[in-house]
Amino acid sequence: MRVFFTNLGCKLNQAEVDRLARRFVSAGHSLAPALEQAELHVINSCTVTHLAARDSRKIARRGRRLNGGLRTVLTGCYATDSPDEAAELAGVDLLVTNDSKDRLLELVHETFPDARPAAEVPAAGVPVHYVPISFGRARALVKVEDGCNMRCSFCIIPSTRGRQRSRPVDDVLAEVRELTAAGHREVVVTGVQISEYDDDGRRLYDLVAAILGETDVPRLRLTSIAPWKFDRRLLSLWSDPRLCRHVHMSLQSGSSATLKRMRRPYTADRYEALAELLRAEVNGLALTTDVIVGFPRETAGEFADSLAFVERLAFARPHVFTYSSRLGTDAATLPEQVPFAEKKARVTEMLAVARASDESFRRRWLGESLEVVWEDRKGGRWSGLSDNYVRVFADSGRDLSATTGRARLETLVEGGVHARCLEESLSDPAAA
Ligand code: SF4
Predict the structure, then answer these.
(1) Do the Cβ atoms of 39 and 73 come closer than 8 Å?
(2) What's the pTM?
(3) CB-based contacts of 361: which residues, under 8 Å, 6+ apart?
(4) How far apart are CA 46 and CA 279, in angstroms?
(5) What are phi and psi of 243, to 5 degrees?
(6) Alpha helix stretches (DSSP H) within 154-236
(7) Between vectors from CA 92 to CA 88 and to CA 95, what angle results, nearest 5°?
(8) Residue 70 belongs to a domain
(9) Ramachandran class of 267: left when φ > 0, alpha when ψ lies in -120 to 50, beta otherwise
(10) Statement to judge: residues 93 and 173 lie in one domain
């Protein structure tokens, strides 16, 4: 079958789609370049906000309108959170909740026996045929754990992804080796709460040390680190230049009073102390974060505290979210929801601070040369990412895709920095 994958939401969802695509291709299916040419549409849905849930529904319906013969499989957090509604959606032929996602390929073959290719289906855990999906051959996402045991009052994820559980270290190492051998220049370790990683007592520190020590991964990036669970042993691993100087640590609010109602187990002061430690220990670190604005009962004073905190911490890239009430979360039942107009005004203020913070972080690197993993060419110029999360653009007559090289950062541009490639530094494993 020709399969088309649509991903919504987080990096974890993307890592799952990449892995699913690899499994489908290994089982003898092919990837359709566009929805119109597909026979099967797999949608990995999201429900972290009501807008994400709405988009999941829209994409499911749109597929059938675009291509009447299409079979649609809806999986992911929206499908898991609202199975009845999702199953009723026009165009959905098979619903697979998150707890069965690892068996999605088998379920497709059971549900559509005529679609089963002749080729034998590989076992679920075995690394499979290489398929470039999300970031081409430059960067690859690797899921190391799933689920969450926390109970942040605004969050639907524990009910859609279940209890926290970790993939065995050896399984992760095998996938990292496969992706490195296939030419990926960076591996991104992802999950819901990677700080909670625990494979029989081997923690995140042990996993990262194993990846750096036992594989030839050219570059390794960590995704979300929990501000309440930071293993200081991790600091020593940044002595390895392959570990990206980038930490994403969700703040959610810079007001300790709001954090308390969110049931986040830290205060603004504790967060700030950890941020200072990370910056002191990792030179040139990019600290990125998420901030929710308009959480129920957020007073003008609390918002002012949060705004001032975000400004003072000078994050490399703060992602700003408008609070979105999710049915089934405790925060949704809290009285004194912030009026929409007030939320909108606060988000505008927070976005202005976030943009200025992002720009000032990029400005720091003008005149410096950084190592960049080049991803693809957009609008005639190459786009890549530095280890410390600066989006870098450059002009070059060479094919830079999935190569690594140093570039001198010269001018600020929208969403990044324009740079000059130091051609002599380019390395391309495919050329080796
Ligand atoms: S830590 Fe909190 S916000 Fe993050 S997934 Fe778990 S419950 Fe949700």
Answers:
(1) no
(2) 0.91
(3) 286, 314, 315, 316, 317, 390
(4) 33
(5) -80, 120
(6) 157-161, 169-181, 204-214
(7) 85
(8) yes
(9) beta
(10) no
pLDDT computed for residue 220 by the predictor: 98
Residue of 77, 148, 228, 266 with the most ligand 1 atoms within 8 Å of its CB, for mutation: 148
DSSP secondary structure of 82-115: SHHHHHHSTT--EEE-GGGGGGHHHHHHHH-GGG
For the chain, 432 residues long, the average pLDDT of each consecutive 10-residue run is 93 92 90 92 92 89 82 95 87 93 95 79 46 68 96 95 97 95 94 96 98 98 95 98 98 98 97 98 98 97 98 97 90 91 97 97 97 91 96 93 95 96 62 48
Cα separations in angstroms, 238 against 169, 208, 277, 304: 20, 10, 13, 35
Q: Is 155 in the pocket of ligand 1 (CB under 6 A)?
A: yes
CA distance 186 to 241: 12
Residues 41 and 71: their CA atoms lie apart, in Å, by: 6
Is there a single domain that holds both residue 64 and residue 105?
Answer: yes
- Please report where in the chains the tokens 């009910």 appear, as a residue: 159
Instruction: Let me know the angle formed at the C-alpha of 386 by 383 and 390, rounded to the nearest 5 degrees.
Output: 80
Residue 121 in domain: no
Per the structure, the count of domains in the chain is: 3
Which domain does 262 fall in, by range?
Answer: 134-364
- Per-residue tokens: 264: 């986040």
Residue 135, token pair as written in the block: 């970031």
Distance CA 308, CA 330 (A): 27
Q: How far is CA 363 from CA 354, 357, 360, in A?
A: 14, 10, 5
Which of 12, 159, 161, 192 maximizes ligand 1 atoms within 8 Å of its Cβ, making it the mutation to test the pocket?
192
Rounded to the nearest 10 degrees, what angle do helices 300-313 and 340-363 cross at? 10
> Is there an atom of ligand 1 within 6 Å of 193 CB?
yes
Residues 333 and 410 in one domain: no
In terms of residues, how long is the chain?
A: 432
Q: Is the CB of 192 under 6 A from ligand 1?
A: yes
How far is Cα 146 from Cα 167, in angstroms, rounded to an integer? 8
Domain containing residue 378: CATH number? 2.40.50.140
- C-alpha 49: how far from chain center: 16
Do 159 and 204 lie in one domain? The reply is yes
Ligand 1 atom nearest residue 224's Cα: 4
